[in-house]
Amino acid sequence: MEQPWSHLKIKRTDEISVVAFADRKILEELAIQEIEEELHQVVDSEPGIKLLLNFQNVDHLSSAALGMLITLNKKIKETNGELKLSDINRQIFEVFKITRLNRVFDIHDTADQAIAQF
Amino acid sequence: MTVPREFNLRAADLHEIIVHDRLHGGGESEERIASELARNSFSPDDAFAVKLALEEALTNALKHGNNDDANKKVIVRYLINHARAVIMVRDEGPGFSPNRIPDPTADENLERPCGRGIMLMHAYMTRIHFNKSGNEVWMLKEKRPRRSASFG
Question: Do B113 and A71 touch (CB under 8 A)?
Answer without folding.
Answer: yes
